[in-house]
Amino acid sequence: MNSAFDTLLRGGTLIDPMTGRHGVADIGIRDGRIVAIESTIGPDATARETHDVSGKIVTAGMIDTHGHIYEHVTGRFGLNADLVGVRSGVTTLVDQGGPSCMTIGGFRNFISNPSDSRVLCFLSAYLVGGLEGHLYPELYGPGQTNVEHSVRAARENADLVRGIKAHCELGGVSRWGLDVIRIGKRIAREAGIPLYIHLGQLWPMKEDAPDIDPDEIVRELMPLMEPGDILAHPFTRHPGGFISMETGEVHPVVWAALERGVTVDVGHGSHFSFDMARTVMAAGIRPYTLGADMHGYNVRVPSATDLDDRGRNPFAGVAPFNLTHAMSKLLYLGMPMDEVVATVTSNPARMLGMADTLGSLQVGREADISVLDHVRGRFTMSDNSGVSVEVDEMLAPAFCLRAGRMHKADSPLIPPLA
């Protein structure tokens, strides 16, 4: 093929679960779109930029399904979108619950529009959204919701709003039961979009509240979940997740929900536990999507001036991570590479209802492409329960293309391989 390209990627290992492609190939890009994918694009082809990506993994632009990037509005919680996005090799970000029906306009104009990354969101079920990282549980009760306004905001911003976010955890249930979840489900159903549910204790229990059985919360929640809804934090180290406190096994009601078409998002964050992950995955459950869940309380932000306050925060984590670190943990836990890649490409594209435009390397599509280093050696990975494991392979971002534009993976949020 004798063509002039803007960018030519040569010799990478393309992995595209949506099309079933897995093999070495070249990609030609022109005017922000993929115009050629061939086993070898001839040596006479010309390009403004040619990149030898031999030995690297080339995927559709990675999608992080769990971000917190409503910078400034959510206080210390919100990270800069492009530091988490394109400068970390990720082309699409989904903010989980930062904007609400009251603040979606600001999210569009000050976060989504100016960012080089594609930025979407799941709208908060709560009027306040993610203000200061949900540090004030009194703001998140049923009296702080509005179904009509939230549905309208979701419909009027359908290009950005791909779902609704709510929390099902002990602290909230001790105050309001599952009322907020039912309201969130009503918003999602009326807007025609999925509901994304946080599992695992987040807030402290209400003072003088009676004891609550975490298993009972899960049993009450699961019948509310419908096909396409998402359960987050299956590997949480906090009570109220997939694993029964009584039996130490996966709740039967979780299996029933998954069989109905409910999906699972890792939502790594400060929640991830190797022990819980082993138990859940040994039972046969595989995550469908892999959200990193990075925020200002669980990663070290270079510009932060309040790091000493982190120890007082219930979200705070200790183990450095990002999306490719989380992918490496799934590899360690036994998921094949193609399945791991699917959790950040084809599967989230389907979850977002955008599989016709995202999540696959195909001629004619916008050139959203992630290039990863697949590093062999001996590395230590840790969770926030104090468990460390030795692994012999890691993934790390090299660079990405967003609509054909090159972005180096130079974010200071990328943790070193250790």
UniProtKB/TrEMBL annotation:
InterPro entries xrefs: Amidohydro-rel, Deacetylase_Atu3266-like, Metal-dep_hydrolase_composite, Metal_Hydrolase
SUPFAM superfamilies reported in the protein's UniProt record: Composite domain of metallo-dependent hydrolases, Metallo-dependent hydrolases
GO MF annotations in UniProt: allantoinase activity; deacetylase activity; metal ion binding
Binding residue positions for Zn(2+) 2: K165, H198, H233
Cross-referenced Pfam families: Amidohydro_1
UniProt binding sites for Zn(2+) 1: H66, H68, K165, D293
Entry annotated with the keyword Metal-binding: yes
Domain Amidohydrolase-related: 301-374
PANTHER family associated with the record: DIHYDROOROTASE-RELATED, IMIDAZOLONEPROPIONASE AND RELATED AMIDOHYDROLASES
Protein name: Allantoinase
Protein source organism: Komagataeibacter saccharivorans
Gene: allB_1
